[in-house]
Write a structure and sequence with these properties.
seven-stranded mixed beta sheet, alpha/beta, binds zinc ion, 15% strand
Length: 684
């Protein structure tokens, strides 16, 4: 592994942070913490921590010897000095003589001795850092180290690979007991430069930041070299069909199968992140893949991301998707049963009251295809996929030099259901649309963009589909929540299909579709150009049908229901003079919405429309508004507020109506009017 330390970078950090009053120790600690944290083969999503022993002055001018140790919630790759809260070290050292210290008391002790009480919680491994005498202590869950530590004979192999300069600590769950055990191993031979923690990771330490970091890179490199020298191809090829189905053909079925049913047709849905690479395919295509998956995760804190390990599916044969769906159902049901049994068995070992986390897999391996990470948000799904890729590498490398044997199930359970680990996941309270994917056509227009923004704010990932790809991308970036923009001509079947394919490849499927794109043409009906009327029907009716057909196809694959939302218009119920070209297809679209409600209610797919009027948009721009107001002898303000409430109605008001329909899960075949009140256009 490449050593990224550069004297010039280190000194630049010391200087920059020095100007902010950060001392040299903490500046260098920040520097090497970032070096470690930016390498996923060392530190992945919370697995790892660092510390430095230094002195700080408190508010009343007293100096304290402190341990600045990584605080929970900080990413090592981007850490700042305040991510390494200072804890008075003397009380921590006194705790070493205790026989026992519960996790809750350990947290209390650490918090009670913070210099700044507003700091984040010090790492759960803080005591281990405190008990080691060196100034700089580095800890990672290096993938290469795990190939050695996750062995049936890890102790022997560790001394063979690393020699006498590394201590070996048997597996104990993080906390007080592990800190004491590690310190005892160190005390037996204080000449060691680090410790291998069985089934867990590695510590290195030294009196300078550079040396502690150099040692980490050195021992990781020894492990990498050993695997390269000694590793034998560990797997044989599994049997694949002549042609396997594509990821996009199975993604929606899989996403639906791993959604958590809350009963009565309601679901907590997942987002899926698909990954494929030669290394992933090599692993998932192996005949031994199920055996490897059953052995468990490579370091126990991965259990909070991917539970006991992945779900493994058989390879999907192209053209046999209906059969594959029942295979997915069977395998998911088996995974759920096994996870539930694992929970019950291990929960019964003591009297602690625990609630089982949903038993759905967070990682799925598909031979011939790749892997899917699952999570309630795309970010969580990506983390699961990242963790999956590193688990694959560690498991493969371990198997190539011996036998991959990670932490046991009971030990894994203790960590997965450890309150301090679960706390890492807390705080992410789901929003009303968390887990849902919304596709909005005409997404760069006034109503489309307002709706996309509101849906993203409420937790949905949004596919902003628009004729103008650049504008769609701008809207997606502005609304955030990992939303994406796609080019989509809603009158072109291939283009619509492409937008939905993109929703599947990015998020795994789609749950809410706002069929919004449209345009208006004017003209007296008796003399209307036939081609113009047909053109309007293409955009204002047939495109809605195209969009709805694609949505329903995917929603039926997912089997978790869904919401179709149509932008109808006041013209659909209350025709305006010379607006036939627009009103007629919109009237048909209103009935299209009802037709879908009628035919797909049994699939849990709801279909509703919003009937908005007089909204400032591309369809009713400022120039048109000025002309119409003038034609009626009204001010622009009076024209726009010409309704029962006397107030202008905006795109945001229309977005609220779409959101209402997305959330009202017992409402279908409905039309919501958003026009400030117009009795002539009121539905009866
Ligand atoms: Zn650790």
């Amino acid at each position: 592994m490449e050593n990224l330390w550069r004297d010039s970078d280190a000194e630049a950090m010391v200087e920059a942070y020095g100007r902010r009053g950060v001392n040299r120790d903490l500046a260098l600690r920040t520097y090497t913490t970032r070096l470690l944290g930016s390498e996923p083969r060392l530190v992945l999503h919370g697995g790892g921590n660092t510390s430095v022993k230094t002195a700080v002055r408190d508010l009343i001018g007293e100096d304290w010897d402190v341990l600045c140790v990584k605080g929970s919630g900080w990413d090592m790759g981007t850490i700042e000095p305040e991510g390494l809260p200072a804890v008075k070290i003397a009380p921590l050292l006194k705790a070493r003589k205790l026989q026992k210290l519960s996790d809750e008391d350990m947290v209390t002790l650490q918090r009670a001795n913070l210099i700044d009480p507003a700091s984040p919680n010090p790492s759960v491994e803080a005591l281990l850092h405190a008990f080691l005498p060196h100034k700089f202590v580095d800890h990672t869950h290096s993938t290469a180290i795990l190939a050695i530590a996750d062995q049936a004979r890890s102790k022997e192999m560790s001394s063979e690979v690393f020699g006498k300069k590394m201590g070996f600590v048997p597996y104990i769950m993080p906390g007080f007991a592990l800190a004491k055990a590690a310190a005892e191993v160190f005390d037996r031979d204080p000449s060691v430069e680090g410790l291998i923690l069985d089934k867990h990771g590695i510590f290195t330490f030294a009196d300078t930041a550079k040396q502690a970091y150099d040692r980490m890179i050195h021992y990781v490199t020894l492990a990498e070299d050993y695997v390269r020298r000694r590793g034998k191809t560990p797997f044989t090829s599994g049997r694949l069909p002549q042609q396997t189905a594509a990821a996009n053909e199975i993604a929606a079925m899989l996403r639906g199968a791993v959604a958590v049913a809350r009963g009565e047709g309601r679901f907590d849905r997942m987002i899926s992140e698909f990954r494929v690479s030669p290394a992933i395919l090599d692993f998932v295509n192996a005949a031994e893949v199920e055996d490897m998956a059953a052995r468990g995760v490579s370091t126990p804190d991965l259990s909070i991301r991917i539970k006991t390990g992945p779900l493994v599916l058989p390879p999907p044969a192209a053209g046999k998707l209906a059969e594959f769906r029942s295979v997915i159902d069977e395998r998911v049901a088996a995974f759920v049963a096994a996870y539930t049994a694992y929970f019950r068995e291990n929960d019964a070992r003591d009297d602690v009251k625990r609630t089982m986390i949903d038993p759905m897999p967070r990682l799925t391996l598909v031979p011939g295809v790749g892997l899917f990470g699952h999570g309630r948000t795309l970010r969580d799904a990506q983390i699961a996929a990242d963790v999956g890729e590193m688990w694959i590498e560690a498991a493969r490398d371990a198997e190539s030099i011996g036998r991959f044997e990670p932490v046991s199930r009971p030990d894994l359970f203790d960590l997965e259901y450890w309150s301090l680990e679960q706390a890492k996941l807390a705080g992410a309270k789901p929003k009303p649309l968390t887990g849902q994917v919304a596709l909005v056509t005409g997404g760069a227009g006034a109503i489309g963009a307002a709706t996309a923004k509101l849906f993203a704010r409420e937790g949905a990932h949004v596919v902003v589909a628009d004729l103008d790809a650049a504008k769609a991308g701008d809207v997606a970036r502005a609304i955030g929540n990992q939303s994406i923009g796609v080019a989509c001509d809603v009158t072109d079947a291939a283009s619509v299909r492409g937008a939905f394919d993109k929703a599947i490849s990015t998020f795994g499927g789609v749950d809410i579709v706002v069929s919004n794109a449209g345009a208006a043409w004017e003209g007296a009906i008796a003399t209307l150009d036939d081609s113009l009327l047909r053109k309007s029907f293409e955009l204002n009716f047939f495109s809605h049908q195209l969009v709805a057909q694609n949505a329903v196809r995917i929603m039926k694959e997912q089997r978790t229901g869904g919401a179709l939302l149509f932008n109808a218009s006041k013209q659909a119920v209350n025709p305006g003079s010379k607006f036939g070209a627009y009103g007629l297809p919109k009237a048909a679209t209103l009935f299209l919405s009802r037709q879908y409600a009628l035919e797909h209610g049994a699939d849990g797919i709801r279909s509703n429309a919003v009937n908005a009027d007089r909204i400032r948009s591309g369809l009713l721009n400022d120039e048109m508004i000025a002309n119409r107001a003038a034609a009626r002898g009204l001010s622009v303000q009076d024209y726009m507020g010409g309704n029962l409430l006397g107030q202008e109605v905006t795109a945001d008001d229309v977005a609220q109506a779409f959101l209402h329909h997305a959330l009202a899960d017992r409402t279908t075949a409905d039309v919501t009017t958003v026009d400030g009140g117009n009795i002539a256009a009121a539905l009866r």
